[in-house]
Amino acid sequence: MATTTAYVKTATTPAGVATITFYHPNHNSLPSGLLAELIAAFEVLSTDNAVKVIVLQSAEHNTFCAGASFDELTAIIDFDTSLHFFNGFGGVINAMRQCSKIIIGRVHGKAVGGGVGLAAATDYCMASKFASVRLSELAVGFGPFVIGPAVERKVGLAAFSQMALNPSEWQTAAWAKEKGLFQESFETVEQLDAYLAHFTEKLCGYAPEALTALKKIFWQGTEHWDTLLPERAAISGRLALSDFTKKAIADFKKGA
């Protein structure tokens, strides 16, 4: 039976594969509480010597992640609260960047906004063909400012611009693989899971020190994100308080 309670859960296999699973009844969207739990999960697993690799996934739903929680966003009326909300996304990206373990993304369904940011912040991302992606932020009055550095790092400025300026347009999983957001794309979720199990088993057999060293190399040049992402969060935080955004989100929720 489906639960109506949002959660972040972690589980680690004897082989050292730690899985972080997040869930929200509204299309796996991310309110600030879940973002804080994700940050904590990455921080704990980063220092756990029993963990060799981390898998990030969402609970089964047609949507991998719908991004920011519009319910929470519409209730925000002051800048400090808005800044805190968007800093949550920056905090997750930085926690993933700073984590000492290789993070594998499992994207089984559609990813919107912050969900695309999560996929981009993994070190290796696998998806099913159902994992279409879209950056919807501009349509509701702000933009993909906080997640932008992570997305642009993976797909390049041209593809990031294409997504950012076409907020209503879905891009296919094949497009996302071509651009480098996904490293693998499978016809079915079953094939995705089979390869994920094979891939993580292989990773667990490699030297942990070598994996950690590779992780540092992968993220070279992003050290300034500790200040960049809060600066980007301030842009979103300010714009999200506008009358345009309030009306756009209200209209979206009416039609949802």
Explain the overall architecture.
This protein has 256 residues and is of the alpha/beta class. It has a single domain (7-204), classed as 2-enoyl-CoA Hydratase, Chain A, domain 1 (Alpha-Beta Complex). It has helices at residues 32-46, 70-75, 79-98, 114-121, 148-164, 173-179, 189-204, 208-218, 225-239, 243-255; strands spanning 7-12, 17-23, 53-58, 63-65, 102-107, 110-112, 124-128, 133-134, 184-186. The protein has a six-stranded mixed sheet with strand order 1-2-3-5-7-9, sandwiched between helices. It has a three-stranded parallel sheet with strand order 4-6-8. Helix 1 packs parallel to helix 3 (79-98). 45% of the residues are buried. The model has no long low-confidence stretch (mean pLDDT 95).
